[in-house]
User: What shape does this take?
Amino acid sequence: MKPEWSKVLLEAGAELEGERVLDYGNRERERSVALTGDVLCDLSHQGLIGAYGPETADFLQGQLTVNVPALDTGHSHLGAFCNAKGRMLADFRIFRRGETWFLRLPREQVQPTLKRLSLFLLRAKVTLEDADDALVRFGLSGPHATQRLAEALGAPVPERVDEVVHHPGVTLIRVQGIHPRFEIYGELEALTRLWEALNVRAAPVGAPQWALLDILAGVPQIHPENAEAFVPQMINLQLLGGVSFNKGCYQGQEVVARMHYLGRLKRRMYRLHLPLESPPAPGTPLYDPQVEAEQPVGRIVQAQPHPDGGVEALAVLQIACAEGGRPRLGSATGPGAEIRPLPYAFEDTAGEDTAGD
Assistant: This one.
């Protein structure tokens, strides 16, 4: 995080833990306002990988689940980087700014992902780097977010999810949310002015509240605890526009395509409510008391406290267990989980998982 940007956040009352804003002094109030009002959230806890050079689009096309050459500067997508078995090493949001492609992903995933991607560079004319200091970034969400952002900029803003609009010093991306929601990237001076203009009528909130908005929108993030645990369809990535089935080969493509065209999902991602005070960590197992084997039937993707009590979570579960309403956290006798609706529909597919468990 740039020291100048850190100063802006501290002056707004931020409580920092490393590069992560925990809250602005009243976490419980922030949880509530994040679901009902207009809020700002620093995104410095999200890392950036930058990729540039004359062969960048072709290189990324051979590694990622999205159709990179078709992604112009006016559009962004979620996507994944998989191993040869189709299991996700990382997921991300990809966008282009000038001649640089950026992958936005959890900060702790940046170095492992850079290392794995670099193994495939060979002689490609591509530079990959940790781009943490390249762009300041924050999010805006709320019922009036579109109006607030347009007024603050005096310029058009993205109208549809995954649409990107660029203005001098600023890049705006519309993302999935329970309200209009934006990720905003840019130069320090421009984003400082924009933050200060928006902060008049939008409340700043900590990183946990942005993660809660992700959960309610059904948008997953893969943390190290779940690396190589899921194929993209298990976290509903194809339903969020994060998998192209029409592009050429990429790392893990054969497994991902076979599941799409020939197989049926045995597991997929659900939204859960758990009667807990503290959120379970990513990777925490879920069990079915009616299954004799001691093997888990799912695992937590991410979880955060809800202002009405309990914890909201995204979890990958065996479909049979989820449809039976039986998942329990940590053991077959652990806290029971309530399945809650996601804001998008599942594909009509169930049965055998050709990628295995």
Q: What stands out?
A: The chain has two domains: 1-222, 224-340. Residues 350-357 have pLDDT under 50 and may be disordered. The longest strand covers residues 88-97. Residues 51 and 89 are 18 Å apart (CA to CA).
